[in-house]
Amino acid sequence: MRFMVIVKSNAESETGKPPSPQDLAEMGRFNERLIDAGIMLAGEGLRESAKGAKLRFEANGRTSVVDGPFSEAKELIGGFWIIQAKDLDEAIAWMRKAPMPAGEELEIRQVAETSDFPADPVSDEYLRREQEWRDATQKPAKH
User: Is 36:28 a contact under the CB 8 Å cutoff?
Assistant: First the structure.
């Protein structure tokens, strides 16, 4: 099973100030442990919302763009991991080891797999193509 682990933004990350060398080294060591165990498939920090935009889809088929920064830093995503674990309990066990400051939260969500879609109303052809795409873009796990 794949899981997305969402790191929330905070007031400090929204300033655009990079993490300290010590924080980067500690996170690097944690990521190396995930990689060595075959758990980590991807992981990135995100730049502050001032460097982003929101795209809103409207009923008339048009879109509108809202440039950052966005309010409520605690509701924004500051980074993520994509990990592979046998179940939610294993994902939680690994992420408990993340070097996060006191008071921070990680949100862990299972990624929907092709097999999660019901056969009806989704066509078998669509599911086949979706699975081919996923197979072509997903790294194999080591475990």
Answer: no
